[in-house]
Amino acid sequence: MKCPRCGFVFQKKRADCAKCGIVFAKIKPGRQSQPKLLMATKIPYDAYGIFPKLIYPLAIAKIYVETVYRKMLGLIWDELIKGKKDLNQTGNFVAFLVFCVFSLLMHHIDDYVGYVIAAFAAIWFLDMKLARSKYCNGEQNEFIRLIKNPRGKLILRKSNPDGEVEYEMDLTPSEINHISIARVNRKGGAFQDTVATVWQSSFSFNDESKQLFSEDNDLSRAMKKVRYLSKLLRVKFRFEHSQNVDPFTQSSRGKNTEDDIKVEAKNNRIKISTRWTSNMRLRFIALILRESGFFLFLLIVAGVMIKFGGLLIFLYDRFYGSGMASVNMEFSFLGIISVFEPESDPVDIVEYAVAMALLIRKTLLLARPQHVSIDRTTTRYYVNKKLEGECKTAEMDHVWLLTSPEPTIVLSDPDSSIVVKNLKSMQEFKSFFHKIREAMETFKATPIHERPNAAPGIEMSPDL
Questions:
Q1: Are residues 149 and 267 in the same domain?
Q2: Within 10 A of 107 (CB to CB), how many other CB atoms are there?
Q3: pLDDT at 322 over 70
Q4: N or C terminus: fewer CB in 10 A for the chain?
Q5: Contact call for residues 408 and 420 (beta carbons, < 8 A)
Q6: b/e for 429-460, b at 16 or more Cβ within 10 A?
Q7: Same domain, residue pair 272 and 258
Q8: Helix (H, G, I), strand (E, B) or coil at 115
C-alpha cells in the first residue's frame, strides 16, 4: 500500500500513514468510520554521525578538564569566600601529582601547545555548529501522534524517521495523574553541548512513569497543546522543578529583600525591574566564570603548566643531575605574577582575545536591564527596553518559578506566555518572582493561587 500524500510504501493495510500521519477513510457497509488525528508533533532525532564518533576521545578529555575547572571554582569559592577549611588533603595531593605529570608533558611540547589548543577549539566549534544545524534543520525527525479511533479510544503512536512504529499505546484518562511541562536543554554532538532549549510535554501516569508527547521551542505553542489535552482528558497540568507558592506567607517571604529589585507604582501601573547591588558582584563574577570562563582557564593553566614543568625539571637536575639546567623565572611577587601572563606569540594572543570576547559577551547578556510592567489589562516583559512578551493580566492563571535547568520565571494566560530569564542570581529570580505575584494580586479579582488549573475551550490544529 502506498500513501497518496508522501509516497511512503508499507506492507500491511492500516488506517493511517506511519510517516506523514494522513488518515485514510475506512468504508464499511452502511457506515463510514474514520480515525481522527487530534494532534501531531515532530521531534528532532539525535543520531551520531561520523564526525562526532571520530572526535569522541577529545570530548571525553574536555569533560574531565571542565570537571576540574568547576571543582577549582568551587574550592576557591568555599575556601576564600565562605571560609570553609574542610578540604580533602589526600585528594589534593593526588591532584597535585597529576598536575605535575601534565606540567612535564606540557613543558616538552611547549612550541605546539598554542596550536593544539587552537585545533581543539576549532573542532569543538565545528562540532557544536553541525549539531545545532542538524537539530534546527530537522534532517531526521521522530513523529508522535494522538489519534482517536472510531470506537472513541485515544491512541498515542510514535514512529521513527523511517516511518516504522516504535510504540503504540492506549491512553486511559483515569491512569493519567497530570500533564507535566519541563524546560530541557537538548544536547548534541560529541561534546554534548546545548543545541537548543526546548519545552517538553509529557503524560505523568499514576505509576510515576512518563511518556513524552511533544517538544516545542516556543512556550506558547507548548501551552496550547497542553491546555488542549488537559481539557480533553480532564487532568491538571504543572511545570516540573517549579515553585508556585503563596507570596503572602511568611515562609515564601523569608529571604526576599528589597535590595535585589526595584518596584515603582505609578498611574495604576507597577514596574518591577532589576538593579545592581553590592552583594551581587562576587556571585555575578562567579556565574560568568562558570558559564564562559572555561576557555580562558584552559589557556592560563596551559601557560602555568609549561612554566611549572620547567621548574620541576630545573629542581630535579639541580639535585639529581648535572646542575646545569636553568629556569627562566624571577622568584619575586612580579615574577610569580608573570607566570600567568600570556606569551607574545600571535596564536596565543588571538586565543586570549577570543576567551575575553566570550566573557564580555556573557557579561553583556547578564547585565542587560530587564523589567516587567503590570496594569489591570496587560502584563509586559522588556529586555533593554525592547518588548519580549505580553499577557492579559485578568486572564493570567499561572506564575511559576522554575529552578532547572536554569532559573526561569514563567507567566501564562490561555493565549500567550512570558519567559523571564538571564537574571544575575537565584536570589534575584526569587525576589522578582514574589514581586510579580504580589503586583498581580493587586490587579486581579481572583487571586492566582485560587484560580482553577483548567484549560479553556480552545481548538487545536493537528498540523506538525
A1: no
A2: 18
A3: no
A4: N
A5: yes
A6: bbbbbbbbbbbbbebbeeebeeeeeebeeeee
A7: yes
A8: helix
The domain total for the chain is 3
Residue 216, number of CB atoms within 10 A of its CB: 19
CB 183 within 8 A of CB 408: yes
Task: Write the pLDDT tens digit of every residue in 366-401.
Answer: 778 899 999 989 999 999 889 999 999 888 888 899
CA atoms within 13 A on the CB side of 254: 6
Average pLDDT over residues 98-116: 81
Q: Say whether pLDDT at 253 is over 50.
A: no
Question: Does the residue 60 lie in any domain?
Answer: yes
Contact 234, 455 (CB under 8 A): no
Task: Name the region of 242 (left: φ>0; alpha: ψ -120 to 50; beta: rest).
Answer: beta
Residue 408, in any domain of the structure = yes
- Among 404, 407, 400, 416, smallest CA distance to 449 is for 400
The answer, yes or no, to whether residue 8 has pLDDT greater than 70, is no
**Grid cell of 336 as nine digits:** 610569580
Q: Is residue 21 part of a domain?
A: yes
Domain that holds residue 390: 245-277+367-450
